[in-house]
Design brief:
- The protein has helices at residues 59-79, 90-102, 107-119, 131-138, 169-172, 248-256, 277-285, 335-345, 414-432, and strands at 5-8, 26-31, 35-37, 127-129, 144-146, 149-153, 159-164, 180-181, 200-205, 211-216, 219-221, 227-230, 236-241, 264-268, 274-276, 293-299, 304-308, 324-328, 350-353, 362-367, 373-383, 398-399.
- The longest helix has 21 residues, at 59-79.
- Helix content is 24%, strand content 24%.
- Strands 1, 2, 4, 15, 16, 17, 20 and 21 form an eight-stranded mixed β-sheet that branches. It has a six-stranded antiparallel β-sheet with strand order 3-6-7-8-9-10.
């Protein structure tokens, strides 16, 4: 966000990363993406038998369904960044989905209808989060009951595990990155709360098509820090960024202050869903000159605004001179795509890993009547070089297949190894090159 959040993702249905400020809309460059399982998984309950009459919602449920649906539909019509709504007949959409929403008998049923409606936009930033998912996200950095997995919804409605937290109940149960969770195979869904000690039976399928039935017993664990500095490698500072959250620029300034010029810096943005646009700009100010153009945003009205680097790297008064690499993967989204794109175009960093998700629009979060949340794209975005990253992503300079971060510090990390090796090779080449004589 600029107050904008670069959030990414699909409804949560594509879980939101940033805390909602009650009664205040939050502009973001975030993706509505990863679901924290209990952190959060994601399926839907099995459909009722054709012989079983559909249950009807009670009066209070129906009224709340109406309020939430009308709020979502109206906000898209009024505020979506493309005033043509991609050519959709939005009134016809309302006629189709409103009766389904009003008939929902649970949060899960309601939010699946809203998710299907917003999927028509083909926009990863347009999504909803049910009240339970919002509660989990609000506790993300605090101690709370978790399973320990992060899943992301794919286009076929199945959810892929992007991360398994070390030492978590999910890791202990044998859950693995890359497994997929199919809605029809499970009863637990992200519209349900996770309760400490209350077991959850889950069925996953791996890449070979084999099923894995596991039982995960959530327990309370401390929230992971948003930012981590790793100095375990000689001559290298690795800055791991979980999200572009408040305070990132100040924190980075503190890490870079008085850092020897011959220390290489690796910015790790893998599995980063995005965050505040102002914090993305602050990160860029740590490495790019003040007032340098780095992107253009275009509002619903068609007005274009040029974004320039503004000093925000804590007390650091000038850009850090250190050699820089940025780690990305297919789960890097929104602000975690704009940042490496700007550094790449400026020739300031080498980008290492996998092509990013291609989910780059400016969105805004608003609280829904039932405590859920809507994330909606409010502006388009292109890089300084005129590249529209939406649906395209950032292509790394050095490609490393399966560049996901390791589950533990002791596990191999080929992407990080490649980044460090590349920086050292470039520095060696620079030292070997004869100085250029003035003409």
């Amino acid at each position: 966000m600029i107050s904008a959040t670069l959030f990414h993702g699909k409804a949560f249905s594509r879980a939101l990363y940033r805390r909602l400020i009650p009664a205040v809309a939050v502009v973001s460059l975030l993706t509505v993406g990863p679901v924290q399982a209990g952190d959060g998984p994601i399926p839907t309950a099995a459909p009722a038998s054709a012989s079983t009459p559909a249950a009807a919602p009670d009066r209070d449920r129906a009224r709340m369904n109406q309020r939430v649906f009308d709020q979502v539909w109206s906000e898209v019509q009024r505020d979506y960044y493309d005033p043509s709504i991609h050519g959709l007949d939005w009134r016809a959409v309302r006629a189709t989905y409103r009766p389904q929403a009003l008939a929902a008998t649970s949060d899960g049923a309601l939010y699946r209808v809203l998710d299907r409606m917003l999927d028509l936009l083909n926009d990863d930033h347009a999504g909803v989060a049910a009240p339970a998912a919002v509660r989990r996200q609000d506790l993300l950095r605090e101690r709370h009951p978790i399973m320990g997995v992060t899943l992301y919804p794919e286009d076929d409605g199945v959810y892929r595990i992007e991360r398994v937290r070390a030492g978590s109940p999910a890791e202990e149960a044998g859950v693995r990155v890359g497994w997929r969770l199919r809605p029809d195979d499970n009863r637990w869904s992200p519209d349900m709360d996770v309760v400490d000690g209350q077991s959850i039976a889950l069925r996953f399928v791996d890449d070979a098509g084999a099923f894995h039935d596991v039982t995960v017993i959530p327990r309370e664990m401390d929230g992971l820090p948003a930012f981590v500095a790793d100095r375990s490698r000689p001559g290298v500072l690795v800055l791991r960024i979980e999200g572009f959250e408040p305070g990132l620029g100040d924190w980075m300034g503190g890490q870079l202050a008085d850092l020897p010029a011959d220390t290489d810096v690796v910015l790790d943005l893998r599995a980063n869903p995005g965050g505040l646009l102002m914090e993305a700009d602050a990160v860029l100010s740590c490495f790019l000159p003040d007032r340098q153009v780095w992107a253009t945003r275009t509002s619903r009205s068609g007005r274009a605004s040029i974004l320039r680097v503004q000093q925000g790297c804590g007390a650091l008064e000038s850009p850090a001179p250190n050699a820089l690499a940025v780690l990305v993967d297919r789960s890097s989204r929104s602000a975690a795509e704009l940042t490496p794109a700007a550094l790449q175009e400026a020739g300031r960093a080498v980008i290492v890993g996998e092509k990013t998700a291609g989910a780059v629009l400016i969105s805004q979060d608003t609280r829904l009547a039932d405590g859920g949340r809507l994330t909606l794209s409010r502006a388009d975005f292109v890089t300084r070089g005129g590249i529209r990253l939406e649906k395209r992503g950032v292509h790394p300079d050095i490609t490393v297949a399966d560049a996901d971060e390791p589950m533990s510090a002791a596990a191999p990390d080929p992407a990080l190894d490649a980044a460090v090796a590349t920086l050292r090779q470039r520095e060696a080449a620079d030292r070997a090159s004869p100085p250029t004589s003035p003409s």
